[in-house]
Each structure stands twice: as structure tokens, then as C-alpha cells.
Amino acid sequence: MLFKNVIGQEEIKSHLIDMVSQNRLSHALLFLGKEGSGSLSLALAFAQYLVCNVANPPLQLQIAQSDLFSIPEEITGPEASGPVSIIRDACGICAACIKAERFIHPDIHFSFPVITKKAGTPPISDDYIREWREFIGQSSYGNIYDWLQFLSAENKQGNITARECNEINHKLSLKSFESNTKILIMWMPEHLGNSGNKLLKLIEEPPPDTLFLFVAEEEQAILPTILSRTQLIKIPRLTVMDVENALVRKEDTNPDRATQVAALSEGNYREALHLLRHADEDWQGLIRDWLNAIMKNNAAGQVKWIEVISRLGREKQKQFLKYFIHLLQQAIRLQFLQISAGDMMMPENERDFAERLNKMSGVSAQEAIVGELDKASYYVERNANPKMLFHALSIRLRYIIKDNSLILIK
Fold first, then answer.
1. First to last CA, the chain
2. What residues contact 52, with CB distance under 8 A and at least 6 apart?
3. 31, 11, 6: which is closest to 222 by C-alpha?
4. Model pTM?
5. Measured distance CA(157)–CA(162) in Å, rounded
6. Are 359 and 387 in contact (CB under 8 A)?
7. Tell me: the pLDDT tens digits for 213-229?
């Protein structure tokens, strides 16, 4: 992957390139960014940049291209006479780049959570390397849930095993094959249990020209012993404009639709893609049916609605909750800022729904509902029973808005 194909994050890209050009590259970096921010894409692009024969030619190639008795400028670096030009991206066409883009470069190794194939045999990443190459080729902005679904893991949990740590120790003890640097990209080190301590000596005293790139989402879930041995690179959320431009450029999305989806995604490109794929879902109708059943205290209607939402699956339940939160936030802006809906860049149907929500409840009630929906999304992520969850949520929403009587009739 080239830096130019990574969405946004221009400051991080420049920082990484400057670390290489100024010889300040640590042997272990932690790319820490929330889901959909592009941490894995950045790690893949950085690895390709480091092995590129044009941006960072192997030492033997540098010597072969130099005069017999002269010292190549590329080797002398800052001490050389005259300015040294810095290449800001991999070339994308050399043999190393072609291998890196196909995820088959012999000096770029991958480690990631996997599931057991055969009982009693701890799995390693190499058991799933073909699936991994296909997955990141299709969705480098995916999360652990997407990866496990790709493997048809059902309810199995992914782990990075002790056997995997032994494999890493063995791989990185070998000399590099083609480039100046051996690189390990470990995705989701949060799934590395105490067996990760097997890597401590390797990380602390790595073989020459070895680089660790850890790619994570939750800092607190990483082993402290590993965390303390890495240089932190914080990856911020993407801007709404970055997401919008990427949707138009990469997904050929209508600009108006891209604007709406980008606003909903909150800097999460994975979420933006999911929203785009489910753009035809009638989330407003689902919210309307739910609130009407709650406001009328229609127990049978609530049970029927809960059956419907329970069958949607976890990802769609999360999208539904996120969309409801978005509508409430729009309604709060209308009340708090005391501006007309026409002055806000909102689709007409969202504007109408937000105004109806404002007639139903005040800002404090809406903020309370947002809090409940946010907690519900957290529990959905952790496989809570959907029927119990949405039944309890319906009761809480009833208590929050019970003093209002508006029915959200179409």
C-alpha cells in the first residue's frame, strides 16, 4: 500500500518519513488509533516504504550502483556534500513494492488473532496467511469482528498464542532476505495474553535492523510490559472531509450521500462503508415504531418490535443505535443553538424527525436517552442478549419520556 492511498493522516505520514530520513526510527512502534482511523493501512504503507528499492534501496544495491572508489551519497546521508533529496512515498513499481502490495514480501511478517483449526493444536498466523492477505486486500479498515466473520469463526474468540510468539522469535532471528530491515506487523496486540511476555527480550534487544509495528485500538488492553517497550504513534480520527472525499473517490458515492454518511461515521471509515452498504435500511421507520409503542405503553407492540430488532444481527443493531443517537444529537443542536432546521445542513427527512423529537422531549431527556443508547451499543458489542437488552432499554426510555404524549405518526 502506498501512503497516497491511505485516507488522510498527512501529518502522521510526514512524521514517519521524517523519522526515517533523520535516522530517528525506533525499533518498536505502536500505531494506536480507534476503529476506522486507518492504523493498519498506515502500518502497511510504512512497511512498503521501508522495503521499497527506490525510497530505501538495499545496501548491496547502493554499493553496486556507486563508483568503485567513491562513497555513495545515500550511505553518507547528512554528512554528504550537497542536499540529499527525500522520497516521500514508495515507488509502487519496483519488485519489492509489488511483493509488499500483494503481502508476500519475505521481510514483512504478519501476526494477528486467529482461531483454533484443530482441537489440541494451538494456531499460528501462518495457518491463515492466505485468508489474511485476502482480508486486508479487501478491507484494511476492518476490525476484529470483520476478521473473525471472514473466518466464519461464529462465537470463537481470536487469540495470539504462545506458539505464535515462538514463531515470531524464530522468524526474526533470521537475516533479512532482500531489504535492509525485517518488519513484523502485529495487528491487535490486545489479543496477546500473558504469553506475550515471551517476546519481551526480542523487543527489548532485537536483532540488527529489526522493526516491530504494533497496530492497536485499545491501549489499556495491551500488556504493560509490551506497551512500555514501544514508541507510541497516536493515530487521530479521520476528519469528516477526509471520509467524504474518500467515499466519493474510492466508492464512487454521490457527493450528497457522501456528506450525510461522513457526518454519521464520526471519523470512522469502516463505519462509513457499513452505513453506505445499508443506506436503504429504514432506520427512521424502526425508531418511529419503537417510540410509538413506548409512548402508547403498547406492550404487545414493544414485544413485536423487539423480535424484529433481535433478528437484525449485532452490526445492524449497532448501526440502528448509532443512527438514533445521530438524530437526537441533531435535535439537541436545534434546541440548544436555537436555530431553525432550515439553517442546518440536514436532509429534509432528518430535519422533520429532529423537530418531532424536540416536541416529544427536552434537551435533558434527549441527553439521557443518548446515554442509554450509547450504553446499549457497548453491550451489543459484547454479545448481550438482544431481547433482554432492548426490553430493558424500552423500559428506561419510557421512564425518561413518560411525561410527554406526542406520537410520532408519519
1. 48
2. 87, 90, 91, 94, 96, 97, 100
3. 31
4. 0.73
5. 15
6. no
7. 999 999 999 999 999 99
